[in-house]
Amino acid sequence: MENSKAIIRMKELVETLREASKAYYAEDREIMSNYEYDKLYDELMALEAETGMVLAGSPTITVGYEAVDELPKEAHESPMLSLGKTKDREELRDWLKDKEGLLSWKLDGLTIVLTYQNGELLKAVTRGNGEVGEVITNNARAFKNIPLRIQYQGELILRGEAVITYSDFEEINSQIEDVDSKYKNPRNLCSGSVRQLNNEITATRNVRFYAFSLVKAEGVDFENSREKQFRFMKQQGFDVVDYAKVDASTIMEAIAEYEKRIEDYNIPSDGLVLTYDDIEYGRSLGRTAKFPRDAIAFKWADEIRETTLKEIEWSPSRTGLINPVAIFEPVELEGTTVSRASVHNVSILRALKLGIGDTITVYKANMIIPQIAENLTGSDTVEIPCNCPVCGGNTQIQAVNEVQSLYCMNPDCDAKKLKSFVLFVSRDAMNIDGMSEATLEKFLAKGFIHEYQDMFHLDRYCDEIIQMEGFGEKSYQKLITSIEQARKVTLPKLIFGLGIANIGLANAKVICRYFKNDIEAMRHADVEELSQIDGIGEVIAKAFVDYFAKEENSVRFEHLLTEVEIEQEEMDEAGQTLEGKVFVVTGSLEHFSSRNELKDIIEKKGGKVTGSVTSKTDCLINNDIASNSSKNKKAKELQIPIVTEEEFMIQYLGMEI
Questions:
Q1: Of 289, 414, 515, 533, which sits 20 to 30 A from 311 (CA to CA)?
Q2: How much is the CA Rg of the chain, to the nearest whole Å?
């Protein structure tokens, strides 16, 4: 390939792969299949070898993606590198040469680093981007099988995988009646469970930890053997990944044995890991920019089946994006029947050259997510729809980061209303249990809902709803009961549920308290009056006034008021002990069920809770005072007090602990 063309292609590949990694590691979603990712990754590596160049941000020299902001961040003592990988068994044996190795499961969950000091669990940090992870210590304490105290009294650092077993995953999903609200796979459920801000939720998810590497244990002689490290970790009470000691003569048999076991293995696994037992030999090999040379991953060859493409279904979303979904003749994959797979976007659709009646091959990524591997016919006859399947409006293909996707251009498309309805039914608004985003999307598509008032008259469509996939008499009655309960609501929650720009629940409470819950006074206030309310300001005031100035919004609000009963909040003027004070709450809590509970208490006492530390902040509440989180650093920089939850309760709420 000509060098300039190669560089252009490399840039395309780097951007595409980076976006895929960001979605997978930071956002717990997939925008392309593993099969496609590996294919593009291999193409990029070949081009880098051909040109002798590695572009900035290339996934061949970077690891994972930056950790999200919801939890405090912390740098790892030593970088957590990815492993080189192969699907070739002979290559695995050749890699081992004349050495002994440990062959173990490559578990599919979330990698965690645990640190113990003086026999106590000190901290737990996620892998993050390999350099910096998220501190999830309180959540780790809620894992099912982590020892909180161990015999060894020195500093111990080990790595392992947090996972949720298939049986626990199925049990959790069985309690969710709405099919579209069920969790997609154990890895995503585990990731969300481990990174919860409330560890009570983590405790209900049966998260388990399996150690796979010992990083540090001062003063212990392991006689240069990784197997003895594994035995030591077991002795301290840790569950370790199941492993077998192998050499060149036994490794093939061991792989075959693992292959038999994977069929009914209860812990999610996407392959194997081979590590040299000789610790010093492994260290002497060093590392590449991305991979250590003392271990290698083996990924199972995917079970692929041929089938026939029957249809491309176009599925609209709240952003206007219309996703293509392939419907094909059912096939058996990894023990289940599969008949549909996401094609993700127009670029992938065109690259596959799909046509109705084409022979395609399909597989399950990580034995879970159905994907199209190849199109053996390539007729390329699928037509991109010119009209939205929900509203009939015009569609348009748009390119974002050179990836082409189809969008509905009608601003009034019912599918686009989804976001506003999702907010309306959310916990901090109307709190309608059982009304998931997927359910709302179905109701909008069928024309059951056009404005908020319609939410309270779904009983008109009783027969149709009961017949919908994922519903039945029981789930329908549960939904209707929740809707009836939602008729009683506080005014701030109702105002917040309207989705007015810049009006969060805290601002809604401030406005409602100022007007003493007088709806008419609020609706007819002008920008000048609203701007004078402490903490509101001109931007928020204008958004509030502009919303009610639109006749359609005012009419819809009138309709909504006929359906609900406003519950009056008692105003304790004497109890406004936090009047004028501004707080920021971060990290996990122990004495309150959620941040919202603590936030409500502060606001009822006249205080305000914001999301970021500024010069106006009176106090940062964080149980991990010593963390290097961005909020802690900012508070120290501005000389703002950082207090624990208990200190706040004593100093500001006057409570006895």
A1: 414
A2: 28
**Degrees to nearest 5, angle at CA 637 with 633 and 638:** 120
Fold entry, domain 573-651: Rossmann fold (3.40.50)
Return the DSSP state at 66: P
CATH superfamily of domain region 414-486 = 5' to 3' exonuclease, C-terminal subdomain (1.10.150.20)
Amino acid (1-letter code) at residue 344: H
The CATH superfamily holding the domain 305-408 is: Nucleic acid-binding proteins (2.40.50.140)
Q: Are 15 and 402 in contact (CB under 8 A)?
A: yes
Query: Distances from the Cα of 361 to the Cαs of 340, 345, 495, in angstroms?
Result: 12, 18, 51
Helix (H, G, I), strand (E, B) or coil at 595: helix
- Pull the structure tokens for residue 526: 């002008």
Instruction: Provide CATH 1.10.287.610 ranges for the chain.
Output: 3-51
Contact between residue 319 and residue 411 where contact means Cβ atoms under 8 Å apart: no
What are the φ and ψ backbone dihedral angles of 108, each rounded to 5 degrees?
A: -110, 85
Cα 521 from chain centre? 41
Can you tell me the distance from the alpha carbon of 188 to that of 194, in angstroms, rounded to the nearest whole number? 10
Q: Which residue has the higher pLDDT, 498 or 69?
A: 498
- CATH number for the region 3-51 comes to 1.10.287.610
Rounded to whole angstroms, how far apart are CA atoms 47 and 53? 8
> pLDDT of 241-282, one tens digit each?
999 999 999 999 999 898 888 877 889 888 899 999 999 998
Fold of 73-298: D-amino Acid Aminotransferase; Chain A, domain 1 (3.30.470)
The residues of the chain that CATH labels 1.10.150.20 are 414-486, 490-567
Comma-separated ranges of CATH 3.30.470.30 domains in the chain:
73-298
For the beta carbon of residue 27, count every other beta carbon within 10 angstroms. Answer: 12
Phi/psi zone of residue 538: left (φ > 0), alpha (ψ -120 to 50 degrees), beta? alpha
Mean pLDDT for the chain overall: 84
- Enumerate the active-site residues: 106
pLDDT digits (tens, 9 = 90+) for 625-646: 887 777 888 888 889 999 998 8
pLDDT tens across 505-545, in order? Answer: 878 888 888 888 889 999 888 888 888 776 687 888 888 99
Q: What is the pLDDT of residue 69?
A: 47
User: Could you give the CA distance from residue 179 to residue 556 in angstroms, rounded to a whole number?
Assistant: 31
The domain made up of 490-567 is a member of CATH 1.10.150.20 = yes
| Predicted pLDDT at 64 | 42
Mean pLDDT of 210-217: 94
Give 567's pLDDT tier (boundaries 50, 70, 90): confident
Residue type, 547: Y
